[in-house]
Amino acid sequence: MNDQNDPKIVQLFADVGAVVRDSHFVYSSGRHSSVYINKDAIYLHTGVISELCRYMAEPYNADQVDVVVGPVIGGVVLSQWVAHYLNQRRSRGETLAVFAEKGSDSPDKQFSFNRGYDRFITDKNVLVVEDVLTTGGSVRQVVDLVRHHGGNVVGISALCNRGGVQPRDVGDVAIHALVSFSLQTYSEDECPFCQQNVPVNTELGKGKAFLARQKAQGK
Asked: Scanning 39, 90, 177, 206, which has its CA 20 to 30 A from the CA of 61?
């Protein structure tokens, strides 16, 4: 864990059991680790997620953020709360909250703006929010999407940066993460837990999908 993390925020994560250790986890990125940041444990508690989103909004000038965008699913909750706290400090107009999603209009698994949300992006200052950064891939897609629709990305605000993601990884956009964890992760081929036959955790992360894929491949 980063020694520069605010103890109050770290305690909020700990209080809801959002940091799980000593198991064999598979991340959405496909990488493996012994530590998992359980963002779903945070979303159960509206008071906690509200307070965390207040911290996420704090570094930004409310009058200079027109729209908050988050990727589904967790980003929907974050965009709502962060926009709420920006609006409490805004002197004019309103900060809107929208989300990007993957669906029938994005067969290549890329994010898109559905529901007419793209109309609210053009020529606007946009803050992108995310719960956990591992590789930055999803956030980079959202940044590119906003730019494609003519929006100006003013920053990325995240609950947690667990992958050491840097601005260069997400389109050269400044990142503000409430907490940063220095977690050792491994590819499937180099994973020591796989080599030692440590059972994959199927309750958290993408363990079930990983095992199903291995079974289909005859491994």
From this structure: 39
Domain-by-domain residue ranges, the chain?
7-216
CATH topology of domain 7-216: Rossmann fold (3.40.50)
> 17: how many CB neighbours lie within 10 A of its CB?
11
Q: Given this model, what pLDDT does residue 2 score?
A: 53
29 pLDDT band, cuts 50/70/90, is confident
Q: Are 57 and 176 in contact (CB under 8 A)?
A: no
Which residue is listed with tokens 């050269």? 172
**Annotated binding-site residue numbers for 5-phospho-alpha-D-ribose 1-diphosphate:** 102, 130-138
At 15, phi and psi to the nearest 5?
A: -60, -30
Look at strands 67-71 and 96-100 and give their pairing. Answer: parallel
Peptide bond into 73 cis (omega under 30): yes
Name the residue among 176, 178, 198, 135 with its Cα closest to residue 48: 178
Cite the annotated binding site by residue number.
Answer: 102, 130-138, 162
Instruction: Indicate the annotated binding residues for orotate.
Output: 134, 162
152-161 and 175-180 beta bridge pairing? parallel
Asked whether residue 104 carries a pLDDT value surpassing 80, the answer given is no
